[in-house]
């Protein structure tokens, strides 16, 4: 049985299993959480109902495991630990970081492009609320990515 560790991310509680995360949960309101274990779901705490699938697994990218939140923001950032062997040469897009507006479906960042917007295999996320930047640690290519999140409309280009 894996130990569950509780983190505080800018005033919002996030739970994650250790040593290799297989489940993540984040409280998004008084009665709902977002939980992830390969897929991301919105779950009601009052009755346990899964009210919305936020992101369905893709065969090439099925490990939604890490989340970052900002207090007072309505977005949750989620990353999956993508497998390097699934990346094909000259592939245009490979989604492994998601932006989830609370209560709505997820939209993905394009993470492997010709300009290497975000690295491969994001295993950790953190948001700097003062600088309005999202940082990802990318296991498979040993990089750290910085994403400008100042203008939420700009997130749609990823």
Automatic annotation (TrEMBL):
InterPro entries for the chain: Lactonase_7-beta_prop, Quino_amine_DH_bsu, WD40/YVTN_repeat-like_dom_sf
SUPFAM superfamilies for the chain: YVTN repeat-like/Quinoprotein amine dehydrogenase
Protein name: Uncharacterized protein
Organism field: Salmonella enterica subsp. enterica serovar Newport str. CFSAN000835
Record lineage: Bacteria, Pseudomonadati, Pseudomonadota, Gammaproteobacteria, Enterobacterales
């Amino acid at each position: 049985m894996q130990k569950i560790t509780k983190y505080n991310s800018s005033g919002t509680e996030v739970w994650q299993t250790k040593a290799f995360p297989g489940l993540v949960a984040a409280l998004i309101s008084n009665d709902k959480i977002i939980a992830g274990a390969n897929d991301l779901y919105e779950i009601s705490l009052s009755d346990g109902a899964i009210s919305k699938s936020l992101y369905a697994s893709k065969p090439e990218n099925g490990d939604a495991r890490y989340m970052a939140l900002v207090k007072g923001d309505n977005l949750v950032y989620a990353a999956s630990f993508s497998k390097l062997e699934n990346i094909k040469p000259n592939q245009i897009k490979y989604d492994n970081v998601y932006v989830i507006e609370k209560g709505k479906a997820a939209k993905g960042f394009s993470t492997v492009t010709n300009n290497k917007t975000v690295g491969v295999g994001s295993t950790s996320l953190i948001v700097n609320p003062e600088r309005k930047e999202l940082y990802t640690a990318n296991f498979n290519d040993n990089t750290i990515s910085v994403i400008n999140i100042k203008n939420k409309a700009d997130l749609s280009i990823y």
